[in-house]
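Sync notes, pocket subgroup
Present: LS, DG
LS reminded everyone that the earlier model was apo-only. Rerun requested with adenosine-5'-diphosphate included. Inputs:
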Amino acid sequence: MAAKAALYFTVKHNSYICCMSKANAIVMSGIRPTGFLHLGNYFGAMRNYVKLQDQYTCFFMVADLHALTTHPDTKELKENVHRVLAENIACGIDPDKAALYCQSHVRETSELYLYLNMLAYLGELEKTTTFKEKARMQPDNINAGLLTYPVLQTADIILHRATWVPVGKDQEQHLEMARNFVNRFNHRYGNVFPEPLAYNFGEDLVKVPSLDGTGKMSKSENQLATLYLADTDEVIRKKVMKAKTDGGPTAPDSAKPDYIENIFQLMRLVSTTEVIAHYENAYNDCSIRYGDMKKQLAEDMVQFISPIREKAESIRTNESYLHDIMEKGAEKARKSASETMNLVREAMGLHY
Ligand code: ADP
């Protein structure tokens, strides 16, 4: 396919990660309004959005329909949608450059989702890691939307015929499924969609670990071990100081236990190269003091998070500004969606 051939991509661990391209790519991604955004969302997704918006046609959405699969109560949805929008803008998304919109405002999404559902098989959906995890976490609400989450996500992406999807590592399997659905559609009805690829500026997709050494930072799990972009300076300090450590290495150049490697990994995200080198050396010659390291990390996190928090807070309360942004973004998204859906209906023979 032309769009795929123009891309430079690497094949790693049986998956495609898009690294760079000379093509005029279309970029699409989204974040669910299910709680406060955190450092994982920033480094896995938003950091890449900001880098991409200057050069490419970008569609970034607040995935409110996806939120219903795990958060059926809509009482807090409006507030959460506003917060996610404000936090995206505070992190550097420019609504004049990228289309920043709300998923449910683009109705074509639901139509495409329906068609794609006929191309998705129960066996493959049931095997999806995120489905299995979520089903375990909400045994009383294993709804069909949860099962078909990767289908809706595919609809979001290919509605704009996007090829680059800036996401964190947890989304890798969904992107592989998206390519399968695309290939099935193209095979059955004709070539409408390019294959979407997970995108990161570096080579590997990012997974920001939680502070307690188990799993990843997340909006709704592990809240005490997740650093949110809305956390106050005091809360950031407290959470970082509680991160799990031990008595330190007893032999030079030892391998780091996972929970210590996690602290280094967090430091690599926000600290200077000198600071990182200092603690790497101290670890390797066994002189490291984890108390000092965590104090340094806490201060670097405060420096990083507090300007975003303050900016987001001032935007979040400006409802009419947020409303205008969403409307402008939805207009751009609907235009692109309606062009795609004409092609889809034509290819499927739904024009009578
Ligand atoms: P959450 O898992 O917090 O509910 P979403 O499912 O809304 O987040 O994901 C939004 C984006 O943030 C996705 O691109 C996802 O890959 C990314 N993301 C979420 N958590 C992390 C993490 N800990 N590290 C890296 N990226 C992450």
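DG: The CA atoms of residues 122 and 147 lie 8 Å apart.
LS: Residues 31-32, 34, 40-41, 43-45, 167-168, 170-171, 206-208, 216-219 surround adenosine-5'-diphosphate (CB under 6 Å).
Action: DG to write up.
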